[in-house]
């Protein structure tokens, strides 16, 4: 049932995104006894867009994707909230107010001034505090419940091996990658230059064998500007990816 509702609501929020100037509110989702209004989705989308620096008027494709992600996240949150209620999870009012003030401070910091933050939110900060208080409470409850679940999980090597043995046919195959670092020494075509470069390379090799850090020597001597400041690291490379 949950999956059917979720797919239907993605379609609903897409239509809503095309008509977001309409003042009419409506139900975007119902999870247990919790109702998610389209205005709830719009508010979180606005907050998230502000945090991301997303200009909704210029990037409608990203906005529609954000709306779908926000709705899915709100549904997940409400499902977890229902489960948290069964375990009587509660949070203190001071924690809610503290988290809310931190959120507002982040808005102001990103917007530049309180007035600009209010303009981007489409409401005064006092109205935001009042309207978003319960949403922040629900968010903290779900986070606390998730944290309790994570802390109660105990996985050992035997569990991992058993899981792999039982589900190996359905697990995706990832290409083998190796973490590669290099120290580039450039030479100009000539026998003397080749000998000088070989001498330099052997000297560096001897220092590495003697215990000096490869990354430190790469920063000092590598001619590759793209990797030398990162200790010569090229990251993880697949087979046949290098020339």
Automatic annotation (TrEMBL):
<dbReference type="Pfam" id="PF13624">
    <property type="entry name" value="SurA_N_3"/>
</dbReference>
<feature type="domain" description="PpiC">
    <location>
        <begin position="175"/>
        <end position="243"/>
    </location>
</feature>
<dbReference type="InterPro" id="IPR046357">
    <property type="entry name" value="PPIase_dom_sf"/>
</dbReference>
<protein>
    <recommendedName>
        <fullName>PpiC domain-containing protein</fullName>
    </recommendedName>
</protein>
<dbReference type="InterPro" id="IPR000297">
    <property type="entry name" value="PPIase_PpiC"/>
</dbReference>
<dbReference type="Pfam" id="PF13616">
    <property type="entry name" value="Rotamase_3"/>
</dbReference>
<dbReference type="InterPro" id="IPR027304">
    <property type="entry name" value="Trigger_fact/SurA_dom_sf"/>
</dbReference>
<dbReference type="GO" id="GO:0003755">
    <property type="term" value="F:peptidyl-prolyl cis-trans isomerase activity"/>
</dbReference>
<keyword id="KW-0732">Signal</keyword>
<dbReference type="InterPro" id="IPR023058">
    <property type="entry name" value="PPIase_PpiC_CS"/>
</dbReference>
<dbReference type="InterPro" id="IPR050280">
    <property type="entry name" value="OMP_Chaperone_SurA"/>
</dbReference>
